[in-house]
Design brief:
5-stranded antiparallel sheet, 4 helices, 26 strands, 360 residues, mainly beta, 11% helix
Length: 360
């Protein structure tokens, strides 16, 4: 299967991303609208304007087609048009927008200008992921199996669920199941410590107008589902996993230990990671995206500290279309028919919004 997919990609007409962005927004030291932190989403409207959801300030910032700031909407708060945890932004037909506030459990609607229209309360759920064309909200969640809930220690293999809330519904219903993340739990009476599993599996979802793609990163099969969660096919991807060496695992552990802020926490983390059974293989891919044409973009695997810039693209039925390399440290957030819009983080973790032309 791998050889067949590699040949299929080789026979496709090459797609290419420009080496330089045509729009770049963001500076190290500048006026507030040009300094970003925790960018949650960015979308491009049909007239070229760019709307950025800046998570740290809970603002929607609007820029013209050249990247010049025109207006800011929202701030931190619980009132109309305010956000506590701005996490998602969706562009609808006609360039209207919906912003999702995870903590307030609220959808805020804006028209194309954009001007605030109204807000709607929705049940909060940690894994809120996206919206179908009919207005249904989808979320993913991982739950430990029953035997591990009773004995919460050791390697935990979480079960994955896709949940849906219809526009008229008052709660989420389970519509698809799979495999979610992994973690290692070490009892430390009277409590416990939970560690991420090195090169562990994660659940990934990409949501389109009337279908979604759902799979786990340790598999080369990605399920295709309709809006009701009915399986309608499978995408067989070209996996990029590899056998792991002791050096690979040691590097992963050291990167995790570096996140601890005290010497004792670092010592405890090293001791905890030594108890974890070593994994044998890295994930097969890292992330999923959908472009405006409904094509599935699959990011080839790279460790968290060095994400791969390589992406494979499949049509909605799973046929290989292209393989291309994006700019380093660039995270695409809106993939159009002839552009990619996203955020780039430099070595100092400074965030910038960049727009790159795409040639198909």
């Amino acid at each position: 299967m791998f050889i067949e997919l590699a040949l299929a990609f080789a026979l496709q007409q090459p797609w290419a991303v420009s080496a330089q962005p045509t729009v770049r927004i963001g500076e190290v030291e500048a006026a507030e609208p040009y300094m970003f932190s925790q960018v949650a989403a960015a979308v491009r409207l049909s007239d070229g304007r760019i709307v950025v959801a800046n998570g740290a300030s809970n603002q929607l910032r609007v820029y013209d087609a050249r990247g010049r700031h025109t207006t800011t909407l929202g701030r931190t708060g619980a009132g109309p048009g305010e956000f506590q945890t701005l996490r998602l932004l969706w562009r609808l037909p006609g360039d209207s927008l919906i912003a999702y506030d995870a903590r307030n459990g609220r959808l805020t609607y804006f028209d194309r200008t954009p001007t605030l229209l109204h807000s709607v309360q929705v049940p909060t759920i940690p894994g809120a992921s996206g919206r179908l064309a009919d207005g249904s909200l989808l979320a993913t969640i991982g739950i430990a199996p029953p035997e591990k809930i009773k004995d919460f220690q050791g390697l935990i293999e979480f079960n994955g669920f896709v949940l849906r809330k219809t526009p008229s519904g008052t709660s989420y219903d389970t519509i698809a199941r799979g495999r979610a993340g992994q973690s290692f739990v070490q009892p430390v009476p009277p409590s416990w410590r939970q560690y991420p599993f090195p090169y562990g599996r994660t659940a990934q979802i990409a949501i389109g107008r009337n279908r979604f793609y759902y799979g786990d990163t340790h598999s080369t099969d990605i399920g295709i589902y309709d809006g009701n969660g009915r399986s309608i096919g499978t995408v067989k991807i070209r996996g990029s996993g590899k056998a792991l060496s002791g050096a690979d695992i040691e590097q992963w552990v050291e990167k995790e230990v570096e996140k601890r802020t005290t010497p004792q926490a670092k010592t405890d983390a090293r001791a905890g990671f030594k108890e974890i059974p070593p994994p044998r293989r890295s994930p097969e891919y890292a992330a999923l995206r959908l472009d405006d044409a409904g094509n599935l973009w699959v990011r080839r695997y790279g460790p968290p500290w060095q994400p791969s810039p390589e992406w494979d693209v499949y049509d909605e039925s799973g046929r290989p279309l292209a393989s291309l390399r994006l700019p380093a440290r660039f995270e695409p957030m809106h993939i159009g028919t002839d552009f990619l819009l996203g955020v780039t983080r430099d070595d100092l973790d400074v965030e910038r919004i960049e727009l790159y032309p795409l040639r198909r």
